[in-house]
Amino acid sequence: MKYAYPIILSKGKTSVVVYVPDFDINTEGADYADAIEMARDAIGIVGIELQDRGESLPVPTPAGDVKAEDEGDIVSLVDVDFAEYRRQNAQRAVRRNVTLPSWLDYEAEKSGINVSAVLQKALKEELSLR
Asked: How do the domains of the chain map onto residue ranges?
């Protein structure tokens, strides 16, 4: 489920502060792009926490109903796909069976190599993930 929540961006001396009225939370970023990403992350974290507690997500306020308090503040929208956010940030390990030649498994075990860690690293490199 994807939602677009209004945010208020306020330029500070060294960062951009973001207020998310529907969640009553604040965050900040080094610049506008970073602040928007931090807002998306904050909304995602709080949203899946609400879902995990069996609570409903807030209904997004129409952007036109959100007013900036100070001159220079910017009202914008941030989209969050909560299912995708949960999937990308899940820390739960998934068990997979891997087939290796016995000699390779022997050498890895003899060398104290964590095959799971090596596989994770290789998959991230192959998929160009950080």
From this structure: 2-89, 93-130
Quick: pLDDT tens for 55-80.
Answer: 999 999 999 999 998 999 999 999 99
Q: Helices marked H in 4-101 — which ranges?
A: 32-52, 82-89
Q: State both tokens at 107.
A: 């050498």
Find out whether 32 and 16 touch, Cβ atoms under 8 Å: yes
- CATH of range 2-89; options 3.30.300.130, 3.10.310.40, 3.40.920.10, 3.30.160.250: 3.30.160.250
pLDDT tens digits, 93-106 = 778 888 999 999 99
68 closest CA partner among 123, 17, 9, 118: 9
How far, in Å, CA of 27 to CA of 17, rounded?
6
* Tokens standing for residue 22: 């529907």
